[in-house]
Amino acid sequence: MARILIIGGGYIGMYAARRLERRLNASAHQLTLVNSENFMLYQPFLPEVASGLIDPRAVVVPLRRVLRRTQLVVGEVASIDLGSRSTSVRLAGGETRELRYDVVILGAGSWSRTLKIPGLAEHGVGFKDLAEAIWLRNRVLSQLDRAAEVTDPDAKRAALTFVFVGAGFAGIEALGELEDLARTATETIPTLERSDQRWVMVEAASKILPELDPKLAAYAAERLRERDIEVLTNTRLERIDDGIVQLSDREPFLAETLVWTAGVRPSPLAADSGFPVDERGRVRVDRALRVEGIAGAWAAGDVAAVPDTHAGQGTSPPTAQHALRQAKVLADNVAASLQGGRLRPFNYKNKGMLCSLGHYRGVANPLGIRVRGFPAWFLHRTYHLLYMPSFARKARIAIDWTIALLFPRDLAQLGSLEHPRDAFRRAAGGD
């Protein structure tokens, strides 16, 4: 029996496993997937989770529910031994387990790409997973609540200053949705005005949304500025220390919340395990998604440098639409390699990019056609709803959107959930 090990339960891991379950005979092939969580997160909806428009449970897909024949191991792969074809997995309880394989599929994804900026690790927060999105929602609402009672003007200004670094899709969408949330919440607090807040987008490049057409990027920047959001291009974060933010071309200012969305880097698992990688740490693969020079090893997604004749830099960008297609080609090629079939190369032309700006506005370029405003915002929502796995999740999201149209936004701040034992500890007489 061929043992197929899939590392990572994101777009590559989950979609490849689902397709392999259909393509391979259960009696002759054993599928195992290792992931640090028991769910797959659909990241494009994270901004709307942060703003409270979508329930967090609606954007996660339980892996055991959608993978009927695949054994799920909840843990983190610590290392891969290519010689013995085995992996060491740290399980959720702290134990270590060894898994052997005949075929390995690496879909370990990416981490936030950070720089060695003084104070960033201590004071910044990323925006890549569900915990960060929920924390940011609680943070914005708690800062508004605190500022409503503060009498010192400097302390109030610091509490209500929110800095985002990195004006790609993730940063712009997160900023747009959270500013929308804060604007709505402010209307319920008599002692606060929108003018008390300061929202700042910092981008080192000459324009925001560099992947988009310059005219669409300019439109997006204009719409954000209309909402009193500062869009600072050709600007870098130099340091953050004790709530003081220093930018490359501005005077230092107070800010208690800094969100880092300046790109991603591939998981270091591949490089640490001896896989061939490029200068950015991505696994080198051929057009069939086989790892170069290693038999039985495959890779795709953010962790791999996938050759792409349609991309300007020669490799596929780290987007959901590319990962979804790569997962299908990879699964088909793994099945073909085990059954004596023909491999096919990955070949996909980007159908366009979509970005929500919040406030019922967006920008998009489907099939090269410039779309902006409400139609682009609606197109963004519709596209991602269609690609959300499972009908049940689609229905939940559609219901949440309908409720948001008919009723006021939920403004409950649930930050206490981050410290669930505090109340019991006080009751028990602890510190």
Question: How would you summarize this macromolecular structure in one to three sentences?
Answer:
This protein has 13 helices and 24 strands. The chain is α/β, with parallel strands linked by helices. The mean pLDDT is 93.
Can you walk through the features of this model?
The structure is a single chain. The longest helix is centred in the first third of the chain and has 20 residues, at 130-149. The chain is an alpha/beta fold. It is 33% helix and 23% strand. It has 13 helices and 24 strands. It has a seven-stranded mixed β-sheet. Helix 1 (11-23) packs parallel to helix 10 (320-339) and helix 5 runs parallel beside helix 7 (169-186). The protein is globular and about 70 Å long. The mean pLDDT is 93.
Report the end-to-end length measured between terminal Cα atoms.
56 Å
Q: What proportion strand? A: 15-25%
Spans of at least 5 consecutive residues whose pLDDT stays below 50 are none
Biggest sheet strand order reads 7-6-5-2-1-8-20
Average pLDDT: 93
Structural class: alpha/beta
- Summarize the main sheet: 7 strands, mixed
Supply the number of helical segments: 13
Report the count of strand segments.
24
Portion of residues within helices: 25-40%
Q: What is the radius of gyration? A: 23 Å
Q: Please state the overall shape, judged from the principal axes of the Cα atoms.
A: globular
